[in-house]
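Re: Re: token formats

Sure, here are both.
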Amino acid sequence: MASILPFIRKAGTVFDDRVTEIMGEAFDSACNELHDTGQPAIVYEVIAKRIIEATRTGERNVMRLRNAGLAALGLQGDDKQAG
């Protein structure tokens, strides 16, 4: 599975360890919602970029970050699931 870390580095933004962990959880959860390990790299990049953007604006809730990533693909997440 892809990781959000390369996308964070590519964005040139620095987040503390706690926030990076939250972003990673949100990214992993969003990717798991796709139910397919064969996604093209651009799909992961779109999800990561949206999560990074939302984090830059101050969002720290894993589920809202995950849903932001999914929304970038026109998908809607299930708020009842965690990670």
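Second one below.
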Amino acid sequence: MEEAELDQALRETTPAELRHRMEGPGQLSERYRKIGKVMVDGREVYLFTFNTLLKESNFCIRKESRYTHIPDHIHKASELLYVYSGSCTQMVDGTEVRMSQGDLCILDSGVVHSIGYLGEDDIIITIVMRKEYLKHKLLGRLGEGGIINAFIASAISERAEHDSFYVLRNMSSEARHHIVQILSEYFSHDVYNEEIIAAEMVLLFCRLLRQFRDTDLQKKSQKSFDILPVLRYIEENYADVTLAKAAAHFGFSPNYLSKRISSETGHTFKELVILQRMSTAYFRIQNSQDPIAEIAEEVGYENLSYFYCKFQEIFGVKPGALRSGLGASSL
């Protein structure tokens, strides 16, 4: 489906929207009579389970009906809400969240939220996905590329969980392009569309991680301690880096740098070095036939037994078993 076709399809008036426009903004859809309710903090809200749609898929995508509102409800799944066109106002756990075209909101499961009246130009797309798919398959997978990616992916995931939601505003044109591709594939119902959507979702979150890294974290660092250069230094010097070397490089005392790293990342300096070394080793074991002993030494470990032990502790698989699964020799 071409972008112009998608735009036309999303703007077409559906039978439900025609009914809402005729009945007036205060009238809810008949489907709400079949939706169960639960008590949350002393009030009754709708429970959207998406059990049927998510039974054999990790995600489902829908355009929200216009000329009506969506009352307080919760999901059992995680949700991405994207403003394709126009604007919308959500109430999320009692907080008003105004969103404009191009904004994306990540909502945790179990969060009470509602959407105000949507007019003709207000095209709102919701992507509902299994929580484990968002956290482990997308954010978790993208965090394996190094300690900076891991830090950013964790920050997005934990913020969405802690604050119930997280809004990414003014997304890049590249990120919006991937969303359009996802929608085009989904609504085309063509063969292999789920595989293509899964690939586009990874690309989308890569773009979101990059934007989060370049904007939100940079703004935070301008107000306090800038952790990103320290993480980058560890990524580039992991094989022989020490706390003393890093502290001298940035002009801090080792004690001060150690405390700031712990407070900003939740990990000690030593843990970050180990994570980076192991991530590098994992990538090389998967993508080369270099001897594992050689890889271990090059990432900073002369004690092969220790390397094997830490590798299995972090990844849940022995280096040799990982490589055997790919058909390469383990040593």
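DSSP finds 14 helices and eleven strands in the chain. The mean pLDDT is 84.
- S.
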